[in-house]
C-alpha cells in the first residue's frame, strides 16, 4: 500500500542532551498537530533535521528511537547548518522573500551547501519512498527537493507548500540561482502558498524566467502540468478554544489579572525577526502615549519576542534596537507603579500564551511581511468571550481572510497609532460583531481543514495527470494505429502546421518547412492510399507557396480557402469581410500602444500577433483586447480566437472543424488521423467521426483522444507510420 511522506527542514521534535542521554519532546506547533493525523498513521513517515548536530556515533541510536515515532532524521554537520540553513535559507531566501533585498547575501558557498543539503534530503527520501507514494515537502529550505525526487521517481505524487511569501518577480529575479530554484519547485505536481498574491507572483516569475506556459493556475513544463494554488493555513482552533477553559490557564489568567488590574492590555508576540515590524510597532505605541496622555497608567503593551537566528548580524542589531527603544519609551512614560511596556525576550509555555491571549484587549500584529501569521489566529481562537480587537497588518497573509480586524499599513505609523486608539475606544457591541465573524473563519478553516484540502487537491491533480498521461501515444498505441492503417484502403491525414509540423518562430514567415518535413511528406505520399491535408490558419498564399507543388490538399485560413492538388484555390462562398472596417482600427490602436505587436490580414480574418512583445505586457493587452471585443464580435457574428501569442478574429461561419467534416463528406475514408496543437484544432477533434484518431500536440486539456508532447514526437509518429 502506498504511504505518505512529509518532508520539512525540521522534524516536529525538540531534542535535548542531558548527561550523554538524549531526550525527545514532540512539538506542539500547529503544523505538527495538523500533520500528526498523517505521519503517525501506518507506514507514513516525517523526514527532517532534528535541530542539533548529532555526533556520528549517536546517529544510529537516535534514528532507532525516532523510528518508533514514525520520524526519520536527516543529520546535518555544523558546516551544513551554517551555510545551508543560516546562510542560503535565512540570509539569501528569507530577506528576498520578505522584500528586504538589501539584507540578502549572494554567496557561492551558501548556494553550494544548499544544493548539497537538498541532495542529502533527496537521499533520505529515496531510502524510504516507493513508486506510488505521496510526498509532501514543506518550505523554502527545500526548494530544490521536488525535482531532485522527480528525477528518480518520475511518477510519484509530490506536493510542495511554501510557508513564507513568494515575492514579486522584481525581487525574485535578483537571486543569481533563480532558474534553478524554480525548476526545483516545479518538480512538484501541486505547489501551495498561503495567498493568491503569492500564487500570482510565483506564476509570473516562472513564466518570465523559464520557457514554460500557463493557463489559469496551471503551469505546463515539458509534458508535465503543475497546479499552483492558495491554501491559507489555519491553526488548531479547538486546542486554543479548549485551553482557555483549562484550570491551569484560568489560574494563570487570574494571577495575571491580579498584576495588571484594570489596565487595558495590548499584546504583541513574535519571533525576533525584521519582517515582523517590531520596531515600527513600538514607535506607533510611543505616538499613542505622546498624543494621548490620558492613557498613561491605563494601558500597557505586553511584548514577547522569542529569540531566533541571533547568530545573524541583522538579528543581533534588531535586538539591540528593540532593547533601546523599549528602554527609551519606558523611561519617558513610566510612573512609580506603572510601566508602559512589559518586554520579554524569551519563550513561554503555551498555557501562558493562552492566558495572555484570552486576557488581552488588543492583539497588535503588524508585520512588514508575513506569509500567513498564526499569532493573529491564535488570539481569535482564544477569545471565547467574543470581545477583544485584532489590529492586523495588510502585509500578513492572514489579512486576506481576517477582514473584520482593523487592517493597517505597518509603514504608516500614524495609521497604526490611530488604530490602537480606535481599538481602545471600540464599543463592546462592535468588538463582538467583529470577533464573531473572525471566530467563524478561524474555527472553520482550521489546520485539519487545511491539511485535508491540500491532500485532496494533490490526489485530484495527480489523478488528472495520470488520465492525461494514459492518453500519451505510446509505442503500443503506435502499433495499434499501424494495424488499423494497414487494414484501411482509404486514409486521410489532417495535419495542422504551426506547433504541429514545425516549431514556432518569432517571425511567422521564418517558420517555413525544412527539408526533413518535405521528405516526410514525400514518403507519406508514396503510398497512394494516403491523402494528406494540411489544415492551417495561415494565409492561403503562404501555404500555396510552401506546399502548392506537392500532391496533397490544402485548407487555409481556418477553412476559408481550399485547394485540391493540381487545382486552383477556392474561396468559401457567401462570406463577407465588411466587418474588418470596424475591427481593423481597434486592432491598430492596440498595435500603436504595444511595441512589437503587429496585425496580419487574411481574407476572412484579422490576427493581432504579440510574439515579440515584452512578456506580461502582451498577455495584458491581449486580455484587454479580448474583453473589449467580446460584445462587438458577438453582435457581428464573428469568432474571437485567443491562440498562442495571437488573438484572431474571423467569420464564425468558418472553422477548421467544418472544413474537415466537409472534406470527408461522402468520401468513405476508413482511416482518419488528425493532429493539431492549439484550440482552433479542437474544432477538428470535435467534428470528426468517433472512429477518427485525434491527437493533441502539447499537454493542455483537449477534446482529442490522444496527445503527443511536441513537434519532434509528431514527426516520429509519422516516420513510424510510413515504416
Ligand atoms: C512561518 C511564516 C506562517 C510564539 N511565541 C511563543 C510561541 N509562539 C508560536 C506562536 C505561533 C508561532 O510561534 C509563530 O507563528 P507565525 O505564523 O506567527 O510566524 P513564523 O514562525 O514566522 O512562521 C508565517 C507560518 O510559518 C505558518 O505557515 O504563518 O508567516 O513566517 O504558533 O504561538 N509558542 C510558545 N511560546 C512562545 O513564547 N509555546
Question: Could you walk me through the main structural features you see in this protein, from its secondary elements to its overall organization?
Answer:
The two termini are 43 Å apart. The longest helix has 24 residues, at 447-470. This protein has four domains: 4-76 and 122-230, 3-Layer(aba) Sandwich (Rossmann fold); 237-445, 3-Layer(aba) Sandwich (Rossmann fold); 472-572 and 654-722, HAD superfamily/HAD-like (Rossmann fold, 3-Layer(aba) Sandwich); 580-651, Alpha-Beta Plaits (2-Layer Sandwich), CATH 3.30.70. It is of the alpha/beta class. 44% of the residues lie in helices and 20% in strands. The model has no long low-confidence stretch (mean pLDDT 93). Helix 1 packs across helix 17 (447-470) and helix 4 packs across helix 5 (145-152). A nine-stranded mixed sheet has the order 5-4-1-6-7-8-11-10-9, with helices on both faces. An eight-stranded mixed sheet has the order 22-21-20-19-18-27-28-29, with helices on both faces. A six-stranded parallel sheet has the order 14-13-12-15-16-17, with helices on both faces. A hairpin with a 2-residue loop joins strand 10 (218-221) and strand 11. The protein is built from 25 helices and 29 strands.
